Amino acid sequence: MNHSKTQRMTGLALFTGIIVVLQVIGTFVKFGPFSITLTLIPIVVGAAIYGPKSGAYLGGVFGFVVLVACIFGWDMGGAVLWNAQPLLTAVVCLGKGVLAGLAAGDVYRALSRRSTTAAAISAAVVSPVVNTGLFLLALYFLFYDVLVSWATGAGADIATYILTGLVGVNFVLELGVNMVLSPVVVRIIHARKAMPNRRA
């Protein structure tokens, strides 16, 4: 039991470090007003190996780094939201990260009994959908004036701006990265699950 707990803590610490490094790097990779998210794959892997609660924790780490980027102005779009509504920005950053990780873990757990491959791919798809979907809902319902000003500055109506300026670039790239790396996720999970058998 202690050995298993130590392994879990070590694994989560490793994923935490990977997420922090990837998100800091990703903060400076911009497509439109927001940075691209590079951390969803380690969140999905962690959620698949250690369960939904661990996925929620890793998503929270991701959300915290995003929030720090907003506060310090590394993410210009996020900084605008922070200056407009600091508390709401914090709730959105942390909330969407936690729920993206939790959803990945829940989806993987629900489907893994039938197919690890299908479970990993589905979790890798669900995570960016939840992350981006919640962000867009928050923009529309909590930061509508900011969204209007961005759309106006881009010379587009809100629907067009969301589809082309936000979803069309960032989301497609994030989803594409997750889909491409899904086979890697499957191999990591299989390798991790095979380790106890090798020691037995």
From TrEMBL:
Keyword Transmembrane assigned: yes
Keywords: Membrane, Transmembrane, Transmembrane helix
A Pfam family per the record: ECF_trnsprt
One GO MF term: transmembrane transporter activity
Gene3D superfamilies: 1.10.1760.20
InterPro entries, sorted: ECF_trnsprt_substrate-spec (IPR024529)
Transmembrane segments: 12-28, 34-50, 57-74, 86-108, 120-143, 158-189
Identification of the protein by name: ECF transporter S component
